[in-house]
Input
Amino acid sequence: MRSRIVKSLSIAAFAASLAACSSVPLDESQSGSGAGTGAGTSTGQVMDPFNPQSPLAQQRSVYFEFDSYVVPDQYRNVVEMHSSYLSNNGQQRIVIEGNTDARGGAEYNLALGQRRSDAVARMMTLMGVRTDQIETISFGKERPKAHGNTEADYAENRRADIVYQR
Amino acid sequence: MTTVIPAIKTMHRSWRACLFGLLLLAIGMFAAGTAHAQLRVDISGVGATQYPIAIADFSGDPKGQLISEVIRADLTRSGQFRLINATGTALDAESTVDHESWHGRGADYIAYGSVTQAGGQYTVSYRLANVIHKSQMDGVAFNGSEKELRRIAHQIADRIYEKITGVRGVFSTRLAYVVQKNNTHELQIADADGQNPQVMLRSKHSIISPAWSPDGSKLAYVSFESGKPVVYVQTLSTGERFPIANFKGNNSAPAWSPDGQQLAITLSRDGIAQIYTINADGSGLRRVMRSPLIDTEPFYTPDGSGLVFTSDRSGSPQIYRVPVSGGNASRITFNGSYNISPALSPDAKELVYVTRRDGAFRIGLQNMGTGAEQLLTDGPDDESPSFAPNGMQILYSSIQGGRSVLAVVSTDGRVRQTLSTLDGKVREPTWGPFTN
Output
């Protein structure tokens, strides 16, 4: 009897939690934590990582060459943009997720993806972001964005993503 | 069945309930769920030596035929036996064997026996005879329920294998592997012949690197269910599990020490991937060494004193060895520019690994004494090699004909078998230990 009550309560809690999940992004994208300094640039863009229109939300990937863990020059601006926002918003935390293409072992790719996220993190700390604002992780080859086996698919997956934490 | 429901009573904060709800959505946990599809077995090649043996249908009960078929299939898969036709032979455990006649048919050995059943309990009596020496080599009786008859047959095959080859059989051991279908990942264990697959964990996220505890009672593995790689240890009999390593950054590549008291793991908590040891209860984390580049995929030497591991400290991934207590690492592999996923044979004399040659990922075997290397497979995408606990075969994952399969190759490279499922990708296999 008791276990049935617990069970129905927990089902209700589960349903409530799902409802909460789906409502969270809507609530937060409006009031957002991006109201801090750094909002607005010379080009008049909104600097809010939780606003889908903001370059902070749109440009958050760094792509790498095959077998390379050096942030290419053309992505330096992207890293600079995020570093500037994070330096001005010291309470904001991010996770940098490293990814690799599908070739090779799962564990070694995990370590390689980590080198990519670390490379972005190192550049950010040199640009003034505190290390405790950043967690670097890797998905290795486990979460491919492109699922094919062409060179273009591989290139799409050699990537580090900057993900803002709420 | 593990029940996680009571825990939700303590979840007052909505974000915790939310997280928990997602977790429930993401993962189905089973103490022992039965998987849908059995693995199909294909064999090619024969061993350098093939022992000719007749396996008579065990008499006395219709189940006797099943037992004989399992024994025949086991011995055939090893590639080390040639089956002599014994159709129509009426022998029970007490029969007198006509050695001359069986020798005349080409057999050196004959196995036979009988099955009796009383109240749902079966007794399986088995005999093994050498028809050249006209001697009985083995005789034993097993008891069990109908469900245990396959296991009993595997145990008989193990005894036959050991009596004739002098090497312990692995037919009653188990395999662990991950099946990926659509967006579902299942950690499964199955008998060494691919039968009786059981789902240990089902998740929407990747599961990699399963590792058996030395006594076969637990699996450590890496699950991405929480949004990043975390190492769990799960007890197979109960389904209970706990995160043994959930530090900042990545947690991965678990390997058990031979005494089961600790694990080696790879963590990126201090930056780049580095190797640590941790007690089996999650206490006593210790960094093994400091390296400026990637160290990962630790594997204990059979005596427990050292680790072999993958590192790219030389500019390309190669395999090294280091004492568990730390100190200087020595390089083991020198051929090619990509050697990863090391595992040592139980006698520590051979190292198996994945090597990339001309763009193909192949399984390599290196003699630890001489350094001589043999490429056991052709690729193009062979991964995750592990030794059978008797050191005679290597299990790995492979892409064959566009399908992902589990494959087994004998350490002399002569005998190959594949275990394939009809649906989904099979990956990250690892061969379990002896358990009896």
Remarks:
- Residues 174-431 of chain B form a domain with the Neuraminidase fold (CATH 2.120.10.30).
- The CA atoms of residues 174 and 432 of chain B lie 5 Å apart.
- The first strand of chain B starts at residue 27 and ends at 34.
- Helices of chain B lie at 14-26, 63-78, 99-104, 149-165.
